Each structure stands twice: as C-alpha cells, then as structure tokens.
Amino acid sequence: GELPAMTDHLFVVDHDDRFIGLLSITDILTKDPGQMVGQVMTRKFKPIPADMAESDVAGLFEKRDLVSAPVVDADGKLLGRITIDDVVDVIRDEAEHSIMSMAGLDEEDDIFAPVVVSSRRRGIWLGINLITALIASWVIGQFEATIEQVVALAVLMPIVASMGGIAGSQTLTLVIRGMALGHIGPANARHILKKELAVGGLNGLLWALVVAAVTMYWFENFMIGVIIAAAMLINLFAAALAGATIPLMMRKMGIDPALSSSVVLTTVTDVVGFFAFLGLATLVLL
C-alpha cells in the first residue's frame, strides 16, 4: 500500500508499543540495506504528549520545522501522529481568534449570528470604548483655556494621539503574536521590552523632528513645533511601553490579551498624548 500523506518518518516502537525513535524515509532509501533499524533510527526525538496544548504543539512544529510527529500517552505508548496539516488548522483558528478578539468579538459572533446576539456582544465593547473616550475627553477639558488661546493646538492634537496609537498597535500586535506562538515568555520579556522601548524612542525622535519642522513652517511658530515634538517623543515612548507590557499584564491577570489589550492601549496613548501636548503648551505658551 501507499504511505499516508505527510509521512517523512516511520515511528519505531518496542514490544509494548512504547515509542523509542524515528526512522527517516530518506535513511531507508539511502542507507545500507544490511543495517539494523536500531543503527539508523534517531533516538533523541521527544514525542508529543497527548495532553499538550494545541498552541504549544504549533510552536514545536515551527521551532523544529516538523512535517509530522508522534503522539504518546503518559506511559510513552504511541497513540498516533500529528502532521503539519493539523497544525496549520490550529494556527488558522488562533489567527481568527486574535483578529476577532482585537475587535471585542469571539468565534461565535460572526455574520450568521442573530442580530440581537451580535448587538449585545459588540455593544459591551462599544460601551467600554466610550468610557475610555470620555477619559481622554476629560483630559482635554482640563486644558480648555489653553486651547481657546492657542487655536493651533486643537488642529495638532489628533496628530500626537494618532502617532502614539499606531506605534503602540504595532508593538501590541507583535507581542500578542509572539505570546500566541510561545516566542515570548518570562525568560525574554525584559529583552523584548528594552528592544521595543529603543524602537519607540528612535521612531519618536525621527518623526518628532519631521512633525516639528512641518508645524513650524505651517504655523510660523517655533515653540509650538518644539512642544509637539516633545509630546510626540513622550507619547511614542509611552506607546511602546504600553504595547509591550499590557499583554503580559493581561495574561498574568487571566484575561485574554487579544480581547482587552487594544482598548487599554488606546486609552493610554490618548491620555498620555493629550496630557503631554496640552500640558507642555500650558507651561510654555501661557
């Protein structure tokens, strides 16, 4: 008969069906036919426990570049195998979960769900987003007098918040993906944080200079250019910090990072951006 699809190894077991090693198809075809199986097979391969989480299995396949792998029970007995086709399905499901969770949805909430059910689920997160927007609006309200005297600030405020939001979302997406694939954990979290802070600081400095130059030319006001540059540098640095730490904090609290991190990040970047920009303007211009 024909070998099953995705078969790159044969699994070697003892008389009790306990897994003891792998025999490569390539070795079967190229090695001396007179050799014993025990002389050719690989004994160092660690099989996959039957109770391992799907996400961990996907991570193993990615790290080891596997096509197939044996699955064993607690006693080491061979139960079957898992192939890259199965892992692709897991990765696709996780990707769908992450995409929908970022919008405050879940797998059950799709275009075929009843109107009332969909409205209720989405309405909860719209309400949470409204609360965060009110917090940002309250911060702006604290500087009403400043905005009335310097109208240019109202024109420039969205730039500071938007740049922070985009920078934070980039970091947030990378961290959540890394956590889902098992690339980010307690061992390397500090390194990831330092790297993202460096990226945020570098991008903040670069785009702060660009926006400052445009602002000075547009409004013919040197100090406003300096203020928005400083505010943008502060907000992009804060965005990188928030984007890297919020998912880790959410996971420690037992909350799905993909489901809640984006709402918290938006609040942080809006509040920090508005407060830094308007606060500096109040101190310098008035």
From TrEMBL:
Keywords: CBS domain, Magnesium, Membrane, Transmembrane, Transmembrane helix, Transport. The chain crosses the membrane at residues 123-140, 152-176, 197-218, 224-250, 262-285. One of its GO terms (molecular function) is magnesium ion transmembrane transporter activity. PROSITE patterns: CBS. It comes from the Bacteria. GO terms for cellular component: membrane. Residues 41-99 form the CBS domain. InterPro entries: CBS_dom, CBS_dom_sf, MgtE_transporter, SLC41_membr_dom, SLC41_membr_dom_sf. It is found in: Membrane. SUPFAM superfamilies: CBS-domain pair, MgtE membrane domain-like. It is a multi-pass membrane protein. Belongs to the SLC41A transporter family. This is Magnesium transporter. It comes from Candidatus Tenderia electrophaga.
